[in-house]
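Subgroup meeting minutes
Present: P.N., E.W., G.H.
Scribe: E.W.

1. P.N. recapped why we're keeping a running log of single-chain structure predictions: easier to compare across weeks, and new members can see raw inputs and outputs side by side.
2. G.H. added today's entry (415 aa).
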Amino acid sequence: MEHTNNKSEQAVETANDNLQTQMDNLSNQKVERVRSFREYAFEKAGLNRGDHLYLKANLQWIKDGHLVDETYNEKEEHLLKQQVQNKIIAKDEEKEKMEGDKRTAIEVSKPSIEKKIKDLNDEIQQTKIDLAENKVETGYQPEKHFMYAGLTVLLSFYLMFFYASAIYASFFRNAGTLLRTAGDDITLYMDSIFDVNGIFTASSSLIIVYLGAFLFFAIGLIPHSIEGKHKKLNIVLVVIAAFITDCFMAYKIDLGIHDLKVMAGIADEDWNFYSSINFYMVLLFGFCAYLVWGYMFEMMLKEKNKKTGDAKAAIIIKGLKEEIKSLKNELQILETKIIELETQIKSILSQLEQLKKDLEGRMLNPDVLSQNLTSFYMGWRQYLNGTDLNLEKVKCEETFNDFIKSQFNQAPNLN
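Output recorded in log:
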């Protein structure tokens, strides 16, 4: 009994070896063209006694493109395969690049940002400790503070009298009275952009004159109290508004001077405010001084804030928190990028899988391949139907069904 089993095992091994040898030989040969798969299968089944292993081998050869019909164009098929392979190579390179970007983001960029955030938080805690132990270096310089404060006060008086004089000259100066009382100083009054005497002579109009001057101070303080997301933009808008206001005042003063010259009979024939030196002098002594005053006021506040450790620590901590906020935004953008890369990589893997399937099935389209496989099996079964190899017929039926199901994920239709 044991001797019989050994013989059977040897026979199976010999048959498998012969089958493998034929498969290797065929894979190294050129494509074999078949006029009729059914007739070819009938012939092969007769040569191999309908063996189900040979049936499976031939089905695989048809699937791999070693057995084709006469209409098969090898050059065209090679070109199509090459196109698919090129797409696979391009997708592989794209996938590798994205995976590299993802690794760099996860292993380098993200840890670096997280470390910076940790270091800044540690610095905040250290600043608080230094403040509690009175170790915060404020950098306060009293001479600077008093210098800025003194200049701010002096410029405040200057601007108050400047704008008071400018407002008075623009709206309340009496041209007729001025011409009657000017005397020998008429030429000087013709080009005077200010009226100092007017703002020191008691009159009801001085209420509006001086209140108007303080209005400009209020506008000047606005940029130093603006906060929020669009701080810089809002400051620029306020400064522009102040500049436009000064331009209107300069125009009004220069127009008043021109009217004086007309009344005196010495006016220029062609007058344009933008070509008049008086217009620009008002802007120089007004708006430019206004900007300098704002800068001195800001420097005074900054130096004053350095006087106490609390203020200095608050400034340091505020700056550190702004850096942390910026880094967190950067980290959020990076994490979003990582998620996008993961999604793109999954998409490319799916495309690669489909391209590889296309490459595997590039030999024939599914309908033609199914038709060729079925035609071949019909010829194989035709041979078996004329024999008494019932057991082999069952094995061949199972082999064909399993092969079709594995390739097309559906049961074969032999009708």
